[in-house]
Amino acid sequence: MSHPEWLENLHLDFIGLDTRYWLADGRETRRHYLDSAASTLALRSAHHVAGELLHHYANTHSQAHFSARIANHAYAWAHEQVLQFIQADSDRYAAFFAGSGCTAPLNRLARTLAARRPERDVVLASLLEHHANDLPHRKHAGTVIHIPLTGIAPTLGAVDLAALERLLEQHRGRVNYVAISAASNVTGICNPVHEIAALAHAVDAWIVIDASQHLAHAPLAMSDTGAAERELDAVVFSGHKLYAPGSPGVAVVRRALLDGCEPDEVGGGMVEDVHLGDYRITAQFPDREEAGTPNIIGAVQLGAVLNVLQRVGMERIHTAEQQRLRQLLAGLAAIPGLRVYGDPDLDRTPRLGTVAFNLDGLDHGLVAAVLNDYHNVAVRNGCFCAHPYVRELLKPELWALDLDPDAEDAATLIQRRQGMVRASLGLYTTDEDIAALLGGIRDLRAQPEYYRAQYDADSEGNVHHREFATPTETLFDPAAALDRALAQLSASSGML
Ligand SMILES: Cc1ncc(COP(=O)(O)O)c(C=O)c1O
Question: Any idea where the Aminotransferase class V domain is (predicted)?
Answer without folding.
Answer: 32-437
